[in-house]
Amino acid sequence: MTMSPFNDSYPQLLSLAVHELRTPASVVGGYLRMLQRDSDTPLTERQRKMIDEAEKSCARLVQLVAELSDVSKLDAGLITIARQPIDLFDLVGEVAGSVHEHEDRDVRLEVRGDSSGAPVDGDTTRLRTAFHAIFRAILREQPAAGVVIAERRLDAPGGISSAVIVVAESTHVQAAYSAPAGPFDEKRGGLGLALPIARRVIEAHGGRITSPRTPDNDANSTAGRGAAIITLPLRS
């Protein structure tokens, strides 16, 4: 397929933006850290608090620039995806045990299904980060205390043996799995570019991430946003 001039220039535009943003953000962060350590001119408590908050925000900007760089490189095919033998079900269980988003609201993540038996060839580090971001996003959007399930299934959509991870509120897992697939909304606040990166990583492994369509076909409604279905092909 021939890329349009717009698509062809898109990775270059992202790369240029990363380069132009990284230098000033790093300089500002450096000067703020110097002020924090400066002992010649003592700061008032109010000044120190303002500088500390500014330094945290600058560090966040630097992180976002790094994430934008990852998006640019993934879209340009400049990141090599490792191909290591992984049991995806085991990896999902490991990641789920490390996610503690909104436990203070008594929103918990539990894993169901087989604990092993899903061999894939993939990049362990990048898949671990992708699943962590997806789990956090779903947990953040639960309106009240409850349990979110990450259910591990084997399936053969389109005749291709695949591992399927259904992430949904505990009473909606089967409904989410059975519903027509809609686009996964990666434009969620508070997570930076973690979800756009996660979607690209999954697609680089030959998989896809979707959300269940709601009856009114509104993929951006609360029901559509509060679940995800991740499918990855098994090792042949």
Give the proportion of residues in helices.
40-55%
Estimate the strand proportion: 15-25%
Radius of gyration (CA) equals 21 Å
What integer is the average pLDDT?
Answer: 87
In total, the number of strands is 8
**Count of structural domains:** 2
What is the name of the CATH topology of the largest domain?
A: Heat Shock Protein 90
Highest CATH level, the class of the largest domain? Alpha Beta
Give the biggest sheet.
6 strands, mixed
For the record, what is the CATH homologous superfamily label of the largest domain? Histidine kinase-like ATPase, C-terminal domain
| CATH architectural designation of the largest domain | 2-Layer Sandwich
Structure description:
The chain is of the alpha+beta class. It has 2 domains: 5-76; 84-233, Histidine kinase-like ATPase, C-terminal domain (Heat Shock Protein 90). The protein contains 7 helices and 8 strands. It has helices at residues 5-37, 45-76, 88-96, 124-140, 173-178, 194-204, 222-225; strands spanning 84-87, 107-113, 119-122, 146-155, 162-169, 181-183, 208-212, 228-233. The strands form 2 sheets. It has a 6-stranded mixed β-sheet. Helix 2 runs parallel beside helix 6 (194-204) and helix 4 packs across helix 6 (194-204). The two termini are 27 Å apart.
